[in-house]
Design a protein that fits this description.
Order of helices and strands: HEEH
Number of helices: 2
Shape: elongated
Radius of gyration: 15 Å
């Protein structure tokens, strides 16, 4: 929770100082699921939620099928947009 707060403060300062591309970017989130694999089968990956409840892949419910991979999530998100 402290990391999430720190990320929010860091983002606020970046906006206030009009820094478009900060060297470091902090992210606070909660692990939602461990994915089958990352972008490549030999990589580990996890899907994190930021607490934002906007409609999208993060708030969708998987009805059937095997555990998703990074590429499955990325492709689904691109189709949703």
């Amino acid at each position: 929770r402290t990391a999430t707060y720190d990320a929010a403060i860091s983002g606020w300062f970046a906006e206030e100082l009009q820094i478009e591309h900060p060297t470091w970017r902090a992210f606070g989130g909660r692990l939602d699921q461990v994915m089958r694999y990352g972008e490549n089968p030999h990589q580990n990956a996890g899907f994190y939620l930021s607490g934002d409840k906007r409609p999208g892949v993060a708030t969708a419910r998987q009805l059937q099928g095997k555990q998703l991979s990074y590429n499955n999530i990325n492709d689904t998100d691109a189709a949703f947009e």
